[in-house]
Write a structure and sequence with these properties.
Two copies of one chain form a homodimer.
Chain A lengths: L3 H8 L3 H8 L7 H14 L5 H8 L4 E6 L5 H16 L3 E6 L4 H11 L5 E4 L6 H10 L2 E4 L9 E4 L2 H14 L5 E6 L8 H17 L8 E3 L7 H13 L6 E4 L2 H13 L9 E5 L3 H5 L5 E4 L2 H16 L10 E3 L3 E3 L2 H4 L9
Helix pairs in contact in A: 1-2, 1-3, 2-3, 5-13, 8-9, 10-11
The first copy, chain A, binds a DNA duplex (16 and 16 nucleotides) through helix 2 and helix 4.
Chain lengths: ~350, ~350
DNA sequence: TTGTAGGCGTTATCAG
DNA sequence: CTGATAACGCCTACAA
């Protein structure tokens, strides 16, 4: 590994001049610059980032904090972010928090001082904790929950997405549309559930349909997975509440619902239409393929890194948080439209 | 951020003594050590890893190179590795290679000198390239392909796993067992396909069943996904080849097969039993739930980090590669055993 | 058992 | 436009 010193000697200049060239600073004659560039190429010199960081205090390291990777939604988000970070020449340091505030905070106290920025999908963080995280390191949260703190955040179109989904179903003639994934605890970390329920009400009201509490299903846990989706759907069926459509607040729930509905020998979508939210790969490949809201993961990644860049450059407003809501897409598939094997060519 | 210097002043000793205490070196009196520890606690001092690294050349950074994260198998592997790395107090720097040799090599030339170690799931790397990667940085490959180079590798029980699966099916009375995912190009990067096909032949031979080429399906691409699994299965059905069981070399293929088989109005497992390999979450939750080989992801992560630790400590033999094959588990579920909705409580 | 001197590779400061 | 000098925070080598 050659150093700046080596390059300087070879080019017959001082190390500082090499530094200037490497960092594209002005105030170097064209002739000198060429000499230095040649020496750099000959020695295959690459600046040592560690030494640079020691001197400047800045790193090109960005932390990415996610609850899990084994849930496809997070994995797909992580992939989008890593690809985007690459475009910004940032190195990503991924940490799994398990959705526990403790771990979310530990990341900051552990690596915080040596991170140029942090992208976090927070779950357990309180308002106060979110503020202190953002104070310790330039941070962008990806979260459906609004924090009472001046922090940057990228969110999905939770409310508008579900609203559009209910409208979609209503326009297809469904009138008894159930909701799956509601939360009545009111706990702030369940914001996604609250917003999506709001969207559900909006959609009903747009269509002139009544809001019927008996069609609104809670899911036992905050874990929106297939199993709980199936259980809740079975409950709905067993209670004998008539319904002809089901909007789940997450694809995993919807996939479970698909299972439970078919188990009960109801046909999809003739007797019951089903839809989800997240547009996981699994949705496209489900059987029948699942109508879902695509939350714009790629856009979320793009916006998150754009916001973070501002923060890191201190270009961003200091005492106020910014919010970006990504555009959504309604992916209509067999579970509401009918047809067969659309994913043969999906 | 306080420095060793600050701590030294506060404790009334020299910086070197603080260094000794921090690094647990011997040759410090109990009294001094206590004074220093107290000062460290009071100032909440934490050694600056960047400065340390600059001096020692060592980092606690381990690279993790995977083709994708959007395929559940890789995401589950990544999660297992990150959790294991945490136990070793290593920080993981994840890079996505897309399975392209170019990107796999770029990671090394980019971050190589500043990585303490590298865990790579290589796809495009040639023998020669694998050797040069391992030479540049302590490396453990997670790969089914054997390299002609002295590199450490953790692999799955490809052959034994499929063999066991075929035996499982034969013991249930199936006699015309098809294979899905074979590769006849012989290209070394398709080693998993080759080994699993070997296991398929072993299993047939164990059961006294003939090997019938017409029951062996290739998949168009190296991408083992649902779509290709479904297509190949449709082909098999359309060709009119009688078969009563199907061993897919990956769960994604098997999930596609599940779809195609049901599409053809064949019942599972009565008319056709289906099984996969990987034991994805999706397998447990498929409909019917999918019998599969669990490749021991947790063990793979453990072994990979154990091997890497040796390499990094230079404890490992220098001119020879080590191979660890993880134990597998046959997860028998509805797609071969029958029964209904086992995953209700899975 | 403890301390001093020096340098890892880079960049900031200031002088030329 | 260019260069000398010092410093970032830590650790190695050697001395006391």
């Amino acid at each position: 590994m050659s150093t700046m010193h080596d390059v300087a000697q070879r080019a017959g200049v001082s190390p500082k001049t090499v530094s200037r060239v490497v960092n594209g600073e002005s105030g170097v004659s064209e002739r000198t610059r060429r000499k230095v560039d040649a020496a750099i190429a000959e020695l295959d010199f690459r600046p040592n980032p560690i030494a640079r960081n020691l001197r400047t205090g800045r790193t090109g390291l960005v932390g990415l904090a996610l609850p899990h990777l084994s849930q496809p939604f997070y994995a797909e988000l992580a992939e989008a972010i890593m690809r985007e970070a690459e475009r910004h020449d940032l190195t990503v340091l991924t940490e799994l928090t398990g959705g526990v505030a403790e771990a979310e905070l530990a990341l900051v106290s552990e690596h915080g001082p040596y991170l140029a920025g942090l992208l976090m999908y927070p779950v357990g963080l309180s308002d106060e904790q979110a503020r202190s995280v953002a104070q310790a390191v330039p941070t962008v949260f990806m979260s459906e929950r609004a924090y009472e703190a001046p922090v940057d955040r990228v969110a999905m179109a939770n409310r508008e997405g579900v609203r559009a989904m209910v409208s979609h179903m209503a326009s297809l003639g469904y009138t008894r549309i159930a909701a799956l994934g509601a939360d009545h605890t009111g706990r702030p970390e369940r914001a996604a559930a609250h917003l999506r329920l709001d969207g559900y009400r909006d959609g009903l009201s747009d269509a002139g349909l009544p809001y019927l509490p008996e069609l609104v299903c809670e899911v036992g846990t905050p874990d929106w997975d297939r199993q709980h989706g199936a259980e809740a759907t079975r409950g709905l069926i067993e209670r004998g509440v008539p319904f002809d459509a089901l909007v789940a607040f997450a694809d995993a729930l919807a996939l479970g619902a698909l299972h439970a509905v078919q188990e009960a020998d109801l046909t999809i979508p003739d007797q019951v239409a089903v839809a989800g939210f997240d547009d996981l790969d699994d949705a496209r490949y489900a059987c029948p393929s699942l109508t879902s809201i695509a939350p714009g993961t790629a856009q979320i990644a793009r916006e998150a890194l754009a916001l973070l860049n501002d923060r890191m450059a201190l270009t961003a407003p200091q005492n106020t948080g910014r919010l970006v809501v990504a555009d959504f897409d309604l992916m209509a598939r067999e579970s509401t439209l009918g047809g067969v094997a659309a994913w043969r060519t999906a």
